[in-house]
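User: Run a structure prediction on this.
Assistant: Running it now.
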Amino acid sequence: MDRSIDPRPARRKRLIAIGCVGGLVLVAAVFWASSFSTSRVRVEAAKLQVGTVEKGLFREFIPVTGTVQPIQTVFLDALEGGTVKQRFVEDGHMVKAGEPIIELNNPQLHMDAINREAQLLDQQNNLRNTRLAMDQQTTRLRDELLNLEKDLKRLERDQRIDERLAKDSLMAQNTFLSNSENLHYMREKRKLVAANVRSDSLFRLSQVGSITNNLMLIDQNLKFLRDNLQNLVIKAPIDGQLSGLNVELGQTKQRGERIAQIDVLNGFKVRARIPEHYVSRVSIGLHGTFTHAGKEHMIEIFKVYPEVSNGEFDVDLRFVGTAPAEIRRGQTFQVRLQLSEDMQAVMLPRGPFFQDTGGQWVYVIDAEGKAAKRDVKLGRQNPDMYEVLEGLVPGDRVVTSRYAPFNDADELMIQ
């Protein structure tokens, strides 16, 4: 028997399927539309900083602070310790080379020098006595050799006479043999003394050289002791202005302690500190400029100090040409130190936008007053400009203020 089927469940399933498909289509349409939408932010023109891209001469430089210093400074340290006995000049006065500045008193140093000098003089006397004894020994041996040669000649002469007498039987055979033995003995003794003279000569030659060197060394030590006592009087090594002298009578100064300094004031240099990340780019011969009394002056690096402290290192610069008039020690200048040669480049004015984008992109303003994102590539920089390598052309107007308030919008609507 046939029965009727209710069509409502099937219809309900079809409606659910159609609803799901429609929902998916709607969601896809929303995502598709959002991918082509552009986020925009309205901003007032007065709140923006705008820079114009231009082409010109790019100078890569860094600003550093330079301090004027004397062209040469010599420091005076105490070579020996002691108490201040006398002060000859006052701080700030001009001094001449060799002029005494202060005198120190050190009784212990004097006593040690006296004892050491006595020991050296005693060694000196012993060496001289040794050399004198050697000379006397050489003289005695040579005198003995001369006497032997004289006696030997006499015996040889007598031997010739004895041989004729013994041949004619006018001399006893025993006497002849005794005289011959005596002649042989004298000849052997002469050989022995001559050998002693030769040995003494060789020994004396080696010893005299050693004794002479030792005597010279003792003389040098004596001179050093006397000069060391003279170190208690601190003198100016060069002509210049004395500064930093802060001593009082009776004050104790240790060996190696800084006493004062002498500045040569016939010229000046500029000492500057540079951040350490420029150490590989800074070398002797780099030029810089600074302004003094409304006039620009040029200086160049002539010394680079290798030590790095507190993230910086020092350089010394000298004036190129005539030094500025009326400069003073301790005066500071703002030096623009040039790191490379000038060259033509496309340039963008510096701005705080770099902190937000890292120089990867910028907002470029078009003729309608809209600013759109554009990818760029920046190169070198100086305190005023960035070098543009890609993405911008001369005449482009770029927003250079901070980008953080724009929430990474695609366009800025400038009002």
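The chain has three domains: 40-58+343-414, 62-67+264-338, 108-228.
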